From TrEMBL:
One of its GO terms (molecular function) is actin binding. It comes from the Eukaryota. SMART domains: ADF. Residues 51-185 form the ADF-H domain. Belongs to the actin-binding proteins ADF family. This is ADF-H domain-containing protein. Keywords: Actin-binding. InterPro entries: ADF-H (IPR002108), ADF-H/Gelsolin-like_dom_sf (IPR029006), ADF/Cofilin (IPR017904).
């Protein structure tokens, strides 16, 4: 797990939150506009920022890069381990796996993140590929899980450089192949 040091600074109506990830040497900056600035606003903004971002296991980034660059996998399913407070790889799809294998790998009653390498042929008869990010949050999932996944999504997506399509789905029809095709052109 990666430790993160965060600081908060006030600049005339804005709050600057910056976090330093010592292992990776990364500094993350975030400006937040606050209409009515009080010490409680500063504290609650900082706490929300700190609570919303789960650590991302290095394996997540590695497997995503292998999907993107080497096409080693058709899809990757990610899971938040609440006890470890980090996103981990849960399942890898073989390059020959179908979209049905991908959709079947998402649990019916639990939230997940996933990326899918979607191959298609354009009207000009060119073979193309797009990487689709799916934020899977079924209606039957626990409310706490939905909140954790929703608040951690943007932080996690920033780690995956190269996502071309984003879908938020609560049931399989919202992430069907027809939906992905319509967003690909």
């Amino acid at each position: 797990m990666v430790s993160c040091n965060s600081s908060v600074m006030y600049f005339g109506g804005s709050i600057l939150i910056f976090s330093f990830l010592p292992v990776h040497g990364i500094i993350i900056f975030e400006f937040v506009q606050v209409a009515c600035l009080t010490p409680m606003n500063i504290l609650s903004t900082w706490q929300a920022n700190a609570a919303s971002g789960m650590a991302v296991h290095d394996d997540c980034k590695l497997k995503f890069l292998e999907l993107k660059a080497k096409r080693t996998y058709r899809f990757v399913v990610f899971k938040i381990e609440e006890k470890q407070k980090q996103v981990i790889v849960e399942k890898l799809g073989e390059p020959t796996d179908s979209y049905e294998n991908f959709s079947a790998s998402l649990p019916a009653d639990e939230c997940r993140y996933a990326v899918y390498d979607f191959d298609f042929v354009t009207e000009e008869n060119c073979q193309k590929s797009k990487i689709v990010f799916v934020a899977w949050s079924p209606d039957t999932a626990k409310v706490r899980s939905k909140m954790i996944y929703a608040s951690s999504k943007d932080r996690f997506k920033r780690e995956l450089d190269g996502i071309q399509i984003e879908l938020q789905a609560t049931d399989p029809t919202e992430m069907g192949l027809d939906v992905i095709r319509s967003r690909s052109f």
